[in-house]
Amino acid sequence: MARIIVVTSGKGGVGKTTSAAAISTGLALKGNRTVVIDFDVGLRNLDLIMGCERRVVYDLVNVIQGEAGLNQALIRDKRTENLHILPASQTRDKEALTLEGVEQVLEKLSEDYDYIVCDSPAGIERGAQLAMYFADEAIVVTNPEVSSVRDSDRILGLLASRTRRAEQGQDPVVERLLITRYNPDRVDSGDMLNLDDIQEILAIKLIGLIPESEAVLRASNSGVPVTHDEQSDAGQAYLDTVDRLLGEEKPLRFHQFEKKGFLSRIFGGGRR
Amino acid sequence: MSLKVEQATTAFTFKGGMLPMTVMELSTSDPERIGAQLAGKLSQAPAFFQHTPVVLSVEKLDDTALALERLCAVCRSHRLLPVAVRGGGEGIKQSAWALGLGWFPPQEIRETRPLTTVDETSAGIDETGSGRIHRGTVRSGQQVSAPGGDLVIIGAVNAGAEVLAAGSVHVYGPLRGRALAGIHGDRQAGIFCRELHAELLSVAGTYKRLEDVDRALLGTPVQIGLKEDQLAIEALV
Ligand SMILES: Nc1ncnc2c1ncn2[C@@H]1O[C@H](COP(=O)(O)OP(=O)(O)OP(=O)(O)O)[C@@H](O)[C@H]1O
Ligand SMILES: [Mg+2]
Question: What residues does the AAA domain cover (chain A) (predicted)?
Fold first, then answer.
């Protein structure tokens, strides 16, 4: 039986797809059979971040509508063993997904994988609710700003009421907080919420903190999940996150303001 | 398609809800004069008169001279839909009920704001006959209500969440959302919390927004209640 993990946020553009790609890559690198599913029908971009956009033939909607088999739609990741991608459709609309269809796909995948990572669309509407409905765990991606925290709070309310686990009275979905695009300088200057404030409001366990990083931009432009950039701060932060997901204790990093050194001030470098 | 897997087995559920409601405060009981003024308003703002529900407030009027039935007819002919009466004595209450209208007890304070809120469905209904204890964070978009008594929240009420009670609201945690006590008009009700950041506080319809709250009290434990028709916020010691 696979663990189903939804990566969700409410607010758009906070780093769900980046995180789904990085975390699924990390899980696979650790030897777990992993599949990552793009639920953002109509706006697919997981395949871009995973660098497999040219190999998409069939997608999740095709499978649900019986136009293709699951194995025809799954794309094997070129870099990482044990990792597959199930892309979303660019052309269909969200109505093409049905609850029953999603359930069947997840059930089948459960037989062959250890982890199923679902990249949710933004919002709190049907698409986001479908992505979270069958989840065992949720990674709630939050940026250090008020509107993002508010939306995450809203999503946590839905996780507690609009999921299969909630409706069937099973153990609740395990909720974890992933703070992304954290910029200690701007937190220090008061432009952004700090870690403690976010945690106090959302009151769920922190699974990771990803700094604002140019490495993420480089990674998505080149179609290689940032987890592969082991030298980078974001890459390391995602690897830490994966370790914590797998039950390891890891101290928190990248959350403190680092005084820029003389050289980096001259060369304008700093964090990379 | 609904995301609910199980079909609902109950025919309905009572949900506490606060709806904005226009109160029509009458300064005369003369249907002619009321009709004339309504006709004038109707031509100015036709969009407002779309069978808009209103609460007729008769608190300023002399009880005995009131012909409620005619008044309602005048309202309806101008596309206003009286749904309840506020104020007046036993006689008014009985005739309101006879006409199929709800009745609210008088509100002694004269509110200057034209809008008040009225409990959507559970006004006057005591579902549980007692209070309610909620454990855990009440999150944005969620509403927890105790239509029949006090509400105790063991946890935080986050911004965008709403807690309401016929009696008092006690929050053992930060109160960041909206809290409404005395939703059926209980003026003795209060709001108590460990940390005040509330977006809105209301006791028996008298409210304060975050803006109106003394900044020195923000983040501190407080008790809130009606004092001489004003919402008083005091340190909880
Ligand atoms: N840690 C980071 N540092 C810098 N940029 C980041 C970081 N995380 C995400 N971004 C950038 O933010 C943008 C949005 O990221 P992403 O597409 O992952 O968000 P999303 O939540 O999936 O968005 P959507 O709601 O549209 O699906 C991208 O340009 C991405 O490169
Ligand atoms: Mg996305």
Answer: 3-150
Q: Which token pair is A111?
A: 């037989």
A 179-208 residues with CB below 8 A of B?
201, 203
Q: What ipTM was estimated for this complex? A: 0.79
Does B167 fall in a domain? yes
Residue whose Cα lies nearest atom 29 of ligand 1: it is A217
A217 inside 8 A of chain B by CB: no
For A181, the token pair is: 């695009």
Task: Report the C-alpha gap between A2 and A106 in whole angstroms.
Answer: 9
- pLDDT tens for residues A65-111? 999 999 999 999 999 999 999 999 887 777 788 999 999 999 999 99
Question: How much is the average pLDDT of B96-100?
Answer: 88
Q: Are residues B147 and B74 in the same domain?
A: no
Instruction: List chain A residues with CB under 8 Å of B1.
Output: 98-99
Which stretches of chain A drop beneath a pLDDT of 50? 268-272
DSSP structure class, residue B157: B
The answer on B123 and B222 residing in a single domain is: yes
Question: Residue for token digits 């088999």?
Answer: A69
Question: Among A61, A203, A109, A14, which residue's Cα sits nearest to residue B140?
Answer: A203
pLDDT at residue B20 in the model: 66
Residue from A230, A201, A204 nearest A215 by CA = A230
Task: Report how far residue B93's alpha carbon sits from residue A107's, in angstroms, rounded to the nearest whole number.
Answer: 60
Cβ–Cβ < 8 Å for B233, B214? yes
B8 touches chain A (CB under 8 A): no
Gap between the Cα atoms of A132 and A69, Å rounded: 23
Domain count, chain B: 2
Distances (CA, A) of B70 to A172, B35, B50, B65: 57, 10, 20, 12
Give the residue numbers spanning the domain of B199: 116-235
Beta-ladder partners of B133: B152
Residues B75 and B127 in one domain: no
Crossing angle between the packed helical segments A214-222 and A233-245, to the nearest 10 degrees: 80
Q: How far apart are CA B123 and CA A194, in angstroms?
A: 42
Nearest CA-CA distance, residue B16 and chain A, Å: 18
